[in-house]
Amino acid sequence: MINEWSKAKLIRLSGIIQRNLIEKKSKMDLIYYDDPDYYDTYVIVANNTDQMIEKTVLIVSRLLAGIASHQKRTQKSRFRDKLKESPPCLPRSLMKNVSIVG
Fold first, then answer.
1. Which domain holds residue 35?
2. Is residue 77 a part of any domain in this protein?
3. Are the CB atoms for 24 and 45 separated by under 8 Å?
4. pLDDT band at residue 21, thresholds of 50, 70 and 90?
5. How would DSSP label each residue in 31-87?
6. Stretch 30-48: mean pLDDT, rounded?
7. Does some domain include residue 40?
8. What distance in Å separates the CA atoms of residue 87 and residue 82, rounded to the nearest whole number?
9. Number of structural domains in the chain
10. Looking at the domain assignment, is residue 44 inside a domain?
11. How confident is the model at residue 31 (pLDDT cuts 50, 70, 90)?
12. Residues 66, 27 contacting (CB under 8 angstroms)
C-alpha cells in the first residue's frame, strides 16, 4: 500500500516540480545562461530532479509507515494496560489465571 502511494505521489510531485522548473527557466534573463557556474548548476539540478524527488517520496513514505506502526503499537500497549487495570468482564480473582498475549 505504501509503495503504491509512493508511486502515485512521485508521479504527481515530479510533474509539479518539472513544471515549476520550466516556468522559472522561462522567466530568467538570458544573461544567466552565459554564466558557466549557473548553467552547470542548472543542468545538474535538471538532470537529478527525478532521482531527488523519488528519494524524498520514499523517505516520507517510510517515515509515515514508521509513525503508523508506532501508533499501532502504542494503542495496543495502552489497551493491554487498561485490561490489566480493570478487565471489562472478569473479576480480579479470575484475572490471575489469564495471560494477555500481545
1. 2-70
2. no
3. no
4. confident
5. HHHH-HHHHHHHHHHHHHHHHHHHHHHHHHHHHHHHHHHHHHHHHHHHHHHHHHHS-
6. 82
7. yes
8. 7
9. 1
10. yes
11. confident
12. no
Can you tell me the distance from the alpha carbon of 80 to that of 69, in angstroms, rounded to the nearest whole number?
A: 17
Q: Which helix (H) or strand (E) holds 18?
A: helix 2-27
Cα–Cα separations (whole angstroms), residue 70 to 43, 58, 76 = 41, 18, 10
Q: What is the CA radius of gyration of the chain?
A: 26
Predicted confidence (pLDDT) per residue in 70-84, tens digit: 777 777 777 676 666
Three-state DSSP at 29 gives coil
Taking the whole predicted model, whether its pTM rises above 0.90 is answered as no
Percent of the chain's residues with pLDDT above 90: 0
Q: Is residue 90 part of a domain?
A: no
What integer pLDDT is reported at residue 59 of this predicted model? Answer: 85
> Measured between alpha carbons, how far is 75 from 49 in angstroms, rounded to an integer?
39
